[in-house]
Write a structure and sequence with these properties.
Layout (H helix, E strand, L loop, with lengths): L2 E5 L6 H12 L3 E2 L1 H11 L2 H11 L6 H12 L8 E4 L5 H13 L6 E6 L2 H9 L1 E3 L6 E3 L23 H14 L2 H8 L3 E5 L4 H12 L3
Parallel strand pairs: 1-3, 1-4, 2-3, 4-7
Antiparallel strand pairs: 5-6
Helix pairs in contact: 2-3, 4-5, 6-7
Length: 213
C-alpha cells in the first residue's frame, strides 16, 4: 500500500480527495489536528505536553508534533500505508519527517500537489456552508433555502470561511507551506495536479497518478 502526502492550499479539495484515496487503498489519513485531539481526549503524556502549549496560546513545537506522528505511525492500521493530510506544514517539519521515516527504513511514495488559482480557492471557501448541528458541509448552490439537507437546521458560514479570513489563510499557506512544493519536486516525488475543475474531473487525475483503475 502506498505512503502518500497530500499538499495544497485551503479550499483546493484535500479533504474530499483524501477521503476517496484512503477508501480506495484502505489506509488511514494522518492529520496532526486529529492526532492532537485524540491525545488530549485520552490525556496521554504527549497530549498533556501539547495541551500546555495550546493553553498558553503557543504553537505546539515541531519535536512534539513529530513525536505524535511517530506514535501514530506505530499503530497497526498504518503499518502498510497511510496518507498525510495537512502535515508537514513547513520545510523544518518535512526534514524532521524525512529523518523519522529514514530511521524506520520507510519513505513516501507520492506527494500529490493539488493546485488551483487563488481566486478559485477564495470563491470555493467563501461559498461553503456548514450545518452547526450535524456538521454536514455544502456548496452555497446546494442549499438555496439555507437549510441542511440532512437535518433541516439552518446552515452557516464559519468564521474561518469568510472571505477576509480565507485571504489570510492562503497568505499563511504561501509563506509556510508552499515552499514544500519545490522541496518534494527536487526529491522526484511531486505529482502536480490541476485542481481547477469539478470534483470528478480532478479525482480522475488523482486516480491516474496513483494507478487506481
Amino acid at each position: 500500500m502506498p505512503k502518500i502526502l497530500l499538499l495544497g492550499a485551503p479550499g483546493v479539495g484535500k479533504g474530499t480527495h483524501s477521503a476517496k484515496i484512503t477508501k480506495d487503498f484502505g489506509i488511514p489519513a494522518i492529520a496532526t489536528g486529529d492526532i492532537l485531539r485524540d491525545n488530549l481526549k485520552r490525556e496521554t503524556e504527549l497530549g498533556k505536553k501539547a495541551k500546555a502549549f495550546m493553553e498558553s496560546g503557543g504553537l505546539v513545537p515541531d519535536d512534539l508534533i513529530i513525536a505524535l506522528i511517530k506514535e501514530r505511525l506505530s499503530e497497526d492500521d498504518a503499518k502498510n500505508g497511510y496518507l498525510f493530510d495537512g502535515f508537514p506544514r513547513t520545510i523544518a517539519q518535512a526534514e524532521e519527517l524525512d529523518t523519522l521515516l529514514a530511521e524506520q527504513n520507510d519513505g513516501l511514495d507520492y506527494v500529490i500537489y493539488l493546485n488551483a488559482p487563488k481566486e478559485v480557492l477564495v470563491k470555493r471557501i467563501a461559498g461553503r456552508r456548514v450545518c452547526p448541528s450535524c456538521k454536514a458541509t455544502y456548496r452555497e448552490s446546494e442549499v438555496a433555502d439555507g437549510k441542511c439537507v440532512a437535518c433541516g437546521d439552518e446552515v452557516i458560514t464559519r468564521k474561518d470561511d469568510e472571505a477576509a479570513t480565507v485571504e489570510k489563510r492562503i497568505e499563511v499557506y504561501n509563506e509556510q507551506t508552499a515552499p514544500l512544493v519545490d522541496y518534494y519536486k527536487k526529491k522526484g516525488l511531486l505529482v502536480e495536479i490541476d485542481a481547477d475543475g469539478d470534483i470528478a474531473a480532478v479525482q480522475a487525475k488523482v486516480d491516474a497518478a496513483l494507478g487506481v483503475g
